[in-house]
Amino acid sequence: xxxxxxxxxxxxxxxxxxxxxxxxxxxxxxxxxxxxxxxxxxxxxxxxxxxxxxxxxxxxxxxxxxxxxxxxxxxxxxxxxxxxxxxxxxxxxxxxxxxxxxxxxxxxxxxxxxxxxxxxxxxxxxxxxxxxxxxxxxxxxxxxxxxxxxxxxxxxxxxxxxxxxxxxxxxxxxxxxxxxxxxxxxxxxxxxxxxxxxxxxxxxxxxxxxxxxxxxxxxxxxxxxxxxxxxxxxxxxxxxxxxxxxxxxxxxxxxxxxxxxxxxxxxxxxxxxxxxxxxxxxxxxxxxxxxxxxxxxxxxxxxxxxxxxxxxxxxxxxxxxxxxxxxxxxxxxxxxxxxxxxxxxxxxxxxxxxxxxxxxxxxxxxxxxxxxxxxxxxxxxxxxxxxxxxxxxxxxxxxxxxxxxxxxxxxxxxxxxxxxxxxxxxxxxxxxxxxxxxxxxxxxxxxxxxxxxxxxxxxxxxxxxxxxxxxxxxxxxxx
Length: 479
Hints:
Order of helices and strands: HHHEHEHEEEHEHEEHEHEHHHHEHEEH
CATH architecture: Alpha-Beta Complex
Number of helices: 15
Helix content: 25-40%
Largest sheet: 11 strands, mixed
Strand content: 5-15%
CATH superfamily: Amidase signature (AS) domain
Distance between the termini: 30 Å
Number of domains: 1
Number of strands: 13
Shape: globular
Strand order of the largest sheet: 1-3-2-6-8-7-12-13-11-9-10
CATH class: Alpha Beta
């Protein structure tokens, strides 16, 4: 029974709270027990607030007892990535350089919305320093591990959030995505992750990586992501980039129309997005997933959007952001920063203003190209990642000539440049038992369409979570 409760969706938890067959306190205790059992091995959490979570759950339980739930997520246990400000908890952003001794008296907009809707906050999940790379390890928190095989990485930078969701350490998680940081770990751990349209979810304070960075839901079901997006996309005046609300009131119900299917949609499938190499097993699984959309009545065509080079403008934006971030740090702080982050910041510091503006113009060209592409195609399908999860503790796979994490994850960051909504849907397992992910990309502002397509796929290919009792041993790998 505890395992069954741990893997209940947020939607099912709410239904059971409503009919009285389960209480928020029971569900929270189960989530905390899962953390106690599995976090020592997987390292998904850097902070767990047991007393606070139980207190919130008791308060929620009383609201349900009198028939007065606070909002859409009342009593649902969930986690917050250690990038997002959370009142009462240190937000160290995965770095020893962040001073602990400071007021922690403000919630980020998405966290504030969760409290308003009654969610039970379990703790903060692990991230690399300032979310700078596509895996999750840091000098502060150590190495976060993949529940399908703990010797492999869960990806990053929202790796702790992905592991928490995949293993039932909470029904939902908040992640951030500045180049793939929701979709990379979603693909590597077999969960659902959505990077909404930029500005759809208000953010504060602004990310060091500027308009590349998004806040998004990480869940075990598409419906849960739709529910969570409706909550966290409510307005907040602290974000001057934020889009106006889509709903009739202050929020949008993204579950409305979720089951309309994809019949008649024109869908493009790009297996390599301009010629990037893809692991053969991943390629086979992703192609089979794309074919399912044709079976569902969509018009699927293998076609590439023919984008201009995305790597160079992305690096210019990302590395310049890292340079600006570290420029505010003292020499003492920099002495404890990871060498890889120091390296990209040093490169970013060499860019001239003209270099950066040239990258902005390149980014504009990429965005216009995708806008025109979506005049013909409602959606674009690609692999989420070109390879399965590799060895934990590495920035990039062994045995290749790649330089930085950007080199092995070419399918995600283009759509941070374009600001489009993009999701990773689990689409099967390799022969080694590691998840593969299909990326679904929609036009700007078409978050509901991306969710609808993901839900159509989920209905014919239900998502599978790891069996925790069958995790292989670490095999001597240092924690």
